[in-house]
Amino acid sequence: MNCSKIDLHLPGYLSHELDPATAEEIERHISGCSSCSAKLQAERSLAEGLIALGVCPVPQETERALHERLDGIRGTERQGYRFLRAWAVAGALVAMIMVAGLLFSRQEPVTAAEVLSHARAAANRYKSWHIVYRIREHLRGGKSFVNSYEEWYRAPDMLTDYEKYPGQELTLAVCGSVRMIYDSSQNTARLWPMTKDEQHEIATRKITISVEPKVDLPSLKNPHLAGTIVIRGKTCDVVEGTYVGWKSKMSTKISYAVDRETGLVMRRTIGSGPQVNGNMVRDTVSWELDKPMADSVFGIRIPKGASVLKGKVGVPRSYPKMLLPASRAQEMLRNDMEWILERCPNGGIRVFYAPAQVPESYMFNWAGPSSVVDGRCTAVQVSYIKPSTGDTIVLEQRLSKPDEQGDAITEGSFSGRIFTGTVPYRYAVLTWQKDKFYFTMTASSLATPELIRVAESLQLVVNRYGGSVQPRQTQTYPPATESATVSGPKPVSHAGTLEFYYLKDISTASNPRGRWRMYSYPGAGAGYSFTGPTGKIIGSNAQPKQLLDEVVQPAKNKPILTSRDILATAVATATPDQYTKGETAVKVDVALTPAGAKKLAEFTRTHTGEILAIFYRGRLLMAPMIKDTIVGGKVAITGLRDMREAKGLVDAINSDRTSKPPNSGIRQLPRSR
Amino acid sequence: MAKTEGVREAGQDLDLVERFRQGDRGAFDSLYESHKDGIYSLICRTVGPYSADDAFQEVFIQIFRSARRFRGDSSFGTWAYRIAFNVCRDLTRRNKRQVSTIDVDPDAIAGGACDPADQANACWTRSELLEALQSLTTDERAAIELHYMQSLSYREISGVLLCPDGTIKARVHSAITKLRLKLSHLVEEVDER
User: Fold this and answer.
1) A222-269, pLDDT tens digit by residue?
2) pLDDT recorded at residue A43
3) How far is CA A146 from CA A51, A135, A187, A191, A193, in A?
4) Residue A384: is its pLDDT beyond 80?
5) A221 touches chain B (CB under 8 A)
6) pTM of the predicted model as reported, rounded to 2 decimal places
7) CB contact (8 A) between residue B116 and residue A49
8) Residue/partner pairs of A427-432 with CB below 8 Å, 24 or more apart
9) A309: which chain B residues are within 8 Å (Cβ-Cβ)?
């Protein structure tokens, strides 16, 4: 028996569950193997530690609650027999009451169904959608089961993302933060689970997505129309019903005021009851969702009993949503923030702020963790939606370095990608950084002045709590005072060495026959690595000549665009990276000539999903995948090492307006005759 | 010794189930008393203390409702633990959409026993051990809980988790390896001293 087998048997050996022969063999091995002997010691110590944890005693309150429920069940069972005997009598009585009701009632019969159908139609009109993800999860053991998750969108643009970009990698907030590829032709998607538990447990997942109109009314039992009410000048139908807890089976009376015009819930009132949505509810709670928010702040408050693990706060499973007067909310938030900062010097965000002046027509939509990595919440998000247009404001607070293995969150998550796509939304990201706390605001499809007002109010809130908004110090070259067409410093000798190539031999989803695979290195200007069919590896920065010869093959692959197609109006910009401290993102914006713009548009239209490579002086700067047709003739070039290199490129382009066709490093290579 | 007690308890449980079938209310209370802590502990460590209360009630209501149909193919304890584990797994899946974490309040799930750090050989504290346990999968946590804290044999655990003995053995081994890794830096620190 070798050491690895011994390792497998150690728990059984310690619990005396092995047959005598195996146990003896292990003893013999251990006596001669110091490594296994040490392992046995460690394992014994660990086992003793685990045994010492013992069992958890049942809390008295839980026992009392259980006994009450059991007594209730026993009582019902006893009553059941009596009920059976009295069934005939009771049935007759009920029938009599019904007949009497029909004869004597002058009121309309229950019309809750009509209200719901009306609300559903209104919601449909207002692009309110309910997306159901039915996820079949195949476990490693061969079993499978189906889970359903729901998302509710009022913004129709999010749906167009699904329909317009089949095969595109999308990051969605489903079950925390997950990455998925959605295939619209099959209506299925592949999903990568992010938590360790899931990685161990689940082999594959298939998602089926169905989209249907949705009204924000939960499945109420016995819904009935309780009357009408006017809220903020809007006539609302009040629908009353009973909500039955999933686990506790306790029923709670809930009423919803549904706006007749929009189908949106204007007010929700929860009757007294022991449990609603996992939260204990002792008293009647009511809030109006469309209340003016000028003097209010939404906050998520973590009870002070939340657990602390190694400086990180545990995440409660459900969050109470509160609409509070600003003064009370701010006090609460300050207390919580201090409490968290005191205990979590390295981060662990569980409190977020909302701007004090969110426009009142924006409705609070959702709040909760937007990302979970390895079971730890790494981002908390709250969103507001303007129902009539679908405009969205998303506030997100997160860790800049949430977790060592948290590669999911470093990718940008919600900072505008899903919301923007290629749609020319105006959006802004405001970043607040204090220690490792992160605060971003993303807004889409908003009128700019309104957005600025919201951003300013957010900044005020942040300042109030001692944070400092770090303005993004953008450095521009040539400076704004100079004319963009004025030449920069002395032109470099290799003026205009920018060339755009189609990498036709790179394997992508759209071009699976490509022989080379491409990987990008993280960091500005870090370059790419190319792996060939025979396992050959070429680094774009280390072996630029080999890359050109073997991968690009300019001899038979002419550039799509050259410096001739670029206008001499290039501008370099250096902006502090919004997610990494200290790093600077450098880019050069170039504009194409009309002919160049047309060529690029035509090329990108026919090569979606493939790779376009931009070379500068024979070095590969960037190789993006073409996601859509690029119209407008504007290209942002990244992949530059620093501002100095960017300035060199700008000078080269801007000084080349009247120069001869470029003499680039690429052109020094032999060309086809 | 432990086995003999287990057999005796299994026999007693069968007797109690039979009495419960015949309408003896006290029999169910006896069954509850003998299994409540073990089941609560399994639930608490598998789904976390915040969800444990609800799940615990659900488990015993299910047991109450279906105990009359208990056929005695396995011991009553194994059957009850299986119900508990199924409820936990169900709950974990349902909760995934909200937050796929288990909140750990060390005080709530530590049990009433002494701190392992008090023992001569332990190089970690109770809370460190509990935190390390959170890095395990639901199945692994359940296997560790049943094997170590509740002293169930591989065979009994396989009856609860409905897996072959070998799978349980591998699961325990994998869990122990993970725990060792998680706690290894603490061991090294002590060694360096």
Assistant:
1) 767 777 777 656 677 777 777 665 555 666 677 777 766 655 556 666
2) 81
3) 36, 5, 16, 14, 15
4) no
5) no
6) 0.35
7) yes
8) A427/A451, A428/A452, A428/A455, A429/A578, A430/A455, A430/A458, A430/A459, A430/A469, A431/A469, A431/A470, A431/A472, A431/A578, A432/A459, A432/A462, A432/A467, A432/A468, A432/A469, A432/A470
9) 104, 127, 131, 134
The pLDDT of residue B141 is above 50: yes
Task: Count CB atoms within 10 A of the CB of residue A566.
Answer: 25
A175 reaches B (C-beta below 8 A): yes
Compute the Cα dihedral for A520, A522, A523, A529 and give only its sign: negative
Substitution target from A148, A247, A250, A376 for chain B, most B beta carbons within 10 A: A247
Dig out the tokens for A640 from the structure: 């530059």
Q: Is the ipTM of this complex over 0.90?
A: no
Nearest to A646 by CA among A577, A553, A592, A571: A571
Round the CA-based radius of gyration of chain B to a whole number and report it.
Answer: 18
| Residue partners of A340: CB distance under 8 A and separation at least 6 | A302, A313, A348, A349, A350, A351
Whose CA is closest to A375, among B138, B88, B62?
B138
How many helices (H) and strands (E) are present in chain A, helices listed first?
A: 14, 32
Q: Do residues B19 and B27 make contact, with C-beta atoms less than 8 angstroms apart? A: yes
The tens digit of pLDDT for each residue in A51-75 reads: 877 777 787 777 877 887 777 677 6
For B96, the 3-state DSSP assignment is: coil
Compute the distance between CA of residue A50 and CA of residue B131 in angstroms, rounded to an integer.
12
Question: B66 CB near a chain A CB, below 8 Å?
Answer: no
Do the Cβ atoms of B180 and B191 come closer than 8 Å? Answer: no
Q: Are B130 and B104 in contact (CB under 8 A)?
A: yes
Mutation target vs A (from B58, B90, B98; most A CBs, 10 A cutoff): B98
pLDDT of residue B123: 56
Cβ–Cβ under 8 Å, residues A570 and A588: yes
Question: E strand or H helix at A242, and its extent?
Answer: strand A234-244
Ramachandran sector of residue A496 (left: φ over 0; alpha: ψ -120 to 50; beta: rest): left
Could you give the CA distance from residue A252 to residue A243 in angstroms, rounded to a whole number?
Answer: 5
Compute the average pLDDT of residues A619-629: 82
**A638 contacts A471 by C-beta, under 8 angstroms:** no
Q: Is A153 helix (H, G, I), strand (E, B) or coil?
A: strand
* Tokens 């080999």 sit on residue: A546
Q: Of B25, B65, B113, which has the smallest distance from its Cβ to A52's Cβ?
A: B113
Residue A154 CA to residue A131 CA, distance in Å, equals: 11
Query: Of A296, A301, A273, which is closest to residue A355 (Cα–Cα)?
Result: A296
- Put simply, whether B85 touches A (Cβ < 8 Å) is no
Contact state of B57 with A369 under an 8 Å Cβ cutoff? no
Q: Distance between CA A607 and CA A504 in Å, rounded?
A: 10
CA-nearest residue of chain A to B103? A314
CB crowding A430-466: b at 16 or more within 10 Å, else e: bbbbeebbbbbbbbbbbeeeebebbbebbbebbeebe
Identify all chain A residues contacting B48, using CB atoms and an 8 Å cutoff.
317
Q: Which of residues 164-183 of B touch A (CB under 8 A)?
A: 169-170, 172-173, 176-177, 179-180, 183
Point out the residue among B116, B149, B173 whose CB comes nearest to the CB of A55: B149
DSSP 8-state symbol, A108? P
Tokens of B34: 């003998």
SS3 content of chain A, % helix, strand, coil (to 5): 30, 30, 40
Nearest to A309 among B25, B131, B150 (CB): B131
Closest-CA distance, A274 to chain B, in angstroms, reads 12
Count other Cβ atoms within 10 Å, centred on residue A67: 14
**Please, which contacts does B64-70 make with residues 24 or more away whose CB atoms are closer than 8 Å?**
B64/A70, B64/A73, B64/B28, B65/A73, B67/B17, B67/B20, B67/B21, B67/B28, B67/B31, B68/B20, B68/B21, B70/B17
pLDDT at A447 over 50: no
